[in-house]
Amino acid sequence: MKSGPSFARCLSTAALVLAPLSWAQSPPNAPSPGPNNGLEQMARDFLQPALGQSIGGEAGVKLRPEVVMGQLDSRLRLAPCGAIEPYLPPGTRLWGRSKVGLRCVDGISRWNVFVPVTVKAWGPAWVMKSNVPAGETLNADHAEQTEVDWAAHPSPVLATPQRWIGHQAAYPLQAGQPLRENMVRAPQAFEAGAQVKVSSGGAGFSISVVGQAVAAARVGEPARVRLPNGRVVTGTVRPDQTVSIDL
Questions:
Q1: What share of the chain is helix, strand, coil (3-state, %, to 5)?
Q2: Are residue 106 and residue 51 in the same domain, yes or no?
Q3: Among 121, 137, 157, which residue terminates a domain?
Q4: Given its phi and psi angles, is residue 90 left (phi above 0), alpha (psi -120 to 50 degrees) or beta?
């Protein structure tokens, strides 16, 4: 067999041609598919139709959902299963930090696992423009409208200015914070000992009487009032600073 220069050149040319093909088919350090990738994709596919029912709208505001999928423990090794059923655990809401259940319904081992997910709900909200001390009354200049994740905190977003203008900061507020229900409180309607009008009514009648407030109260909160006959009644403080009692 000859091993002259022409044969060596052929081997060199073949090596140059085959090397790129070998690199394309088996790139070094290529990540191998994880053992649970299929389960996580199954959980994601299950979420898509469920999201429309969960966050189609809050307080009449159309929200834009975003899902951030978590991962199962990479060390988890599950027995083979012929049928896997995704589901939402009882009481689970697709809002903020949540989870999707996956259970084997046809296999030697009936395993059950949970895939962590974070569901974001983007929509318009009012965000503080500057720091505000506790007790300060908010006005229209204190906040501006922008898009935030409504699901980032359990307390509902105050979607309209009417729900926070004229209210007081419940605690020190920071610039950039979206206004939520737990951040504001209604203004105080009256002090303890103040003369308060109490009203009630029903079908075809209404009654009112002036009593004395047992304690200070705010608009929308329950208030106790002592009537002239000494009886103490409880009602809800209205914006006009009267106390309404439901019969």
A1: 20, 40, 40
A2: yes
A3: 121
A4: beta
Whole-number Å distance between alpha carbons of 222 and 4: 104
Terminal CA-CA length for the chain: 113
pTM above 0.85, yes or no: no
Q: Which residues pair with 216 in a beta bridge?
A: none
Instruction: Scan for tokens 């501006």, then name that residue.
Output: 144
39 DSSP β-pair partners: none
User: Which span out of 40-54, 58-72, 137-151 was modeled with the highest average pLDDT?
Assistant: 137-151
Token representation of residue 184: 């504001």
Q: Which residues contact 190 (CB under 8 A, 6 or more apart)?
A: 196, 213, 216, 217, 237, 241
pLDDT tens column, 100-126: 999 999 989 999 999 999 999 999 999
Q: d(Cα 240, Cα 247) in Å, to the nearest integer?
A: 20
Verify that 112 and 159 share a domain, yes or no: no
